[in-house]
From TrEMBL:
<dbReference type="InterPro" id="IPR005107">
    <property type="entry name" value="CO_DH_flav_C"/>
</dbReference>
<dbReference type="InterPro" id="IPR002346">
    <property type="entry name" value="Mopterin_DH_FAD-bd"/>
</dbReference>
<protein>
    <submittedName>
        <fullName>Molybdopterin dehydrogenase</fullName>
    </submittedName>
</protein>
<dbReference type="InterPro" id="IPR016167">
    <property type="entry name" value="FAD-bd_PCMH_sub1"/>
</dbReference>
<dbReference type="InterPro" id="IPR051312">
    <property type="entry name" value="Diverse_Substr_Oxidored"/>
</dbReference>
<dbReference type="InterPro" id="IPR036683">
    <property type="entry name" value="CO_DH_flav_C_dom_sf"/>
</dbReference>
<dbReference type="InterPro" id="IPR016169">
    <property type="entry name" value="FAD-bd_PCMH_sub2"/>
</dbReference>
<feature type="domain" description="FAD-binding PCMH-type">
    <location>
        <begin position="1"/>
        <end position="221"/>
    </location>
</feature>
<keyword id="KW-0560">Oxidoreductase</keyword>
<dbReference type="Pfam" id="PF00941">
    <property type="entry name" value="FAD_binding_5"/>
</dbReference>
<dbReference type="GO" id="GO:0071949">
    <property type="term" value="F:FAD binding"/>
</dbReference>
<dbReference type="InterPro" id="IPR036318">
    <property type="entry name" value="FAD-bd_PCMH-like_sf"/>
</dbReference>
<dbReference type="InterPro" id="IPR016166">
    <property type="entry name" value="FAD-bd_PCMH"/>
</dbReference>
<dbReference type="GO" id="GO:0016491">
    <property type="term" value="F:oxidoreductase activity"/>
</dbReference>
<dbReference type="Pfam" id="PF03450">
    <property type="entry name" value="CO_deh_flav_C"/>
</dbReference>
Length: 328
């Protein structure tokens, strides 16, 4: 690990000021950043510790939603009774990720900013446009079983690793960020970027901007929601395919549906085509499968990850079938 300067921010303004220069990273739980620094992938000149800032509470919003501070620990968010009752997919997503010890350290803000687990990103001997722009992408013709099949480009096929972010995408969450120009609100759908020809630019954050909170809007359908994660082993494994889904049915017709996918794209993937086809239609297995197949029709697969398209269709169908049996 190379030497770096360390700043313990006393308040938000100090944190933002300290991050104005190049080569600065914010430190929350450190469960991803510290690993990347040890591996020599992240090499900040300055680390700004924000753990003392007052962003560790979950508050009710007048609208009926929740405001979640960026420093709320994943374990605390998963255990919150309001989250478990009103947004069960969020709690389930968190509990399916990492280990209990890591969830006790990891923060909501850090979860939004964690980087891909593509093996070529971690291997300095491999070409990776995300780690070194212009180097190439060895995953294209290499071991690509865990890589993305939606939203990819010729420059990068790395999959986004977060479970929580998939649930937040399905719920139309809003990310609050603070920078030199003040506070702004970024829809979750716009927070993460697809790779295009600049896979090293992963989010909509401007240099020096700090994530301060995430807002969950009221969503009655979210009370009937699930997060289903398919992986190689039952614990401490990233998703091959995951589905965050919420469903509301009245008189046999779907009146609201929220659907997002993980493990299949470089960002949490909102399944807008599937939602469009399902809304107003019947809540039956045939409709669920047709919508899932339409969503995956644009998949770009390779020999190693072609199974993900079929797996995603099956997982979407199974998750919606389960929700359809409990919908009101």
């Amino acid at each position: 690990m190379r030497p770096f300067a360390y700043v313990k921010a006393a308040d938000v303004d100090e944190a933002v000021r300290a991050a104005t220069g190049p080569g600065v990273k914010f430190l929350g739980g450190g469960t991803n950043l510290v690993d990347l620094m040890r591996e020599g992938i992240e090499r900040p000149d300055t680390v700004v510790d924000v753990t003392g800032l007052p962003f560790d509470t979950i508050e009710e919003l007048p609208s009926g939603g929740l405001r979640i501070g960026a420093l709320v620990r994943n374990s605390a968010l998963a255990a919150d009774a309001r989250v478990r009752t009103r947004y069960p997919m969020v709690s389930q997503a968190l509990l399916s990720g990492a280990s209990a010890q890591l969830r006790n350290m990891a923060t909501v803000g850090g979860n939004l900013l964690q980087r891909t687990r593509c093996p070529y990103f971690y291997d300095h001997a491999s070409a990776c446009n995300k780690r070194e722009p212009g180097a190439g992408c060895d995953a294209l013709g290499g071991f690509n079983r865990s890589t993305a099949i939606l939203g990819v480009s010729e420059h990068c096929i790395a999959a986004h690793p977060s479970d929580l972010c998939v649930a937040l995408a399905a719920l139309d969450a809003i990310v609050e960020v603070r920078g030199q120009d003040g506070t702004r609100r970024v829809p979750m759908a716009d927070f993460h970027r697809l790779p295009g020809d600049t896979p090293d630019i992963e989010t909509a954050l401007a240099p020096g901007e700090l994530v301060t909170a995430v807002e969950l809007p009221p969503a009655p359908a979210a009370a009937n929601s699930r997060y289903r994660k398919v992986r190689d082993r039952a614990s401490y494994a990233f998703a091959l395919v995951s589905v965050a889904a919420a469903l509301e049915v009245r008189d046999g017709a779907i009146t609201d549906v929220r659907l997002a996918l993980g493990g299949v794209a470089p960002k949490p993937w909102r399944a807008t085509e599937a939602e469009r086809l399902l809304l107003g239609g019947p809540a039956d297995e045939g409709a669920f499968r047709r919508a899932a197949e339409a969503e995956l029709a644009s998949a770009t697969t390779r020999d190693g990850n072609a199974f993900k398209a079929r797996l995603a269709v099956a997982t979407i169908t199974a998750t919606l079938r389960e929700l359809g049996g409990t919908a009101r």
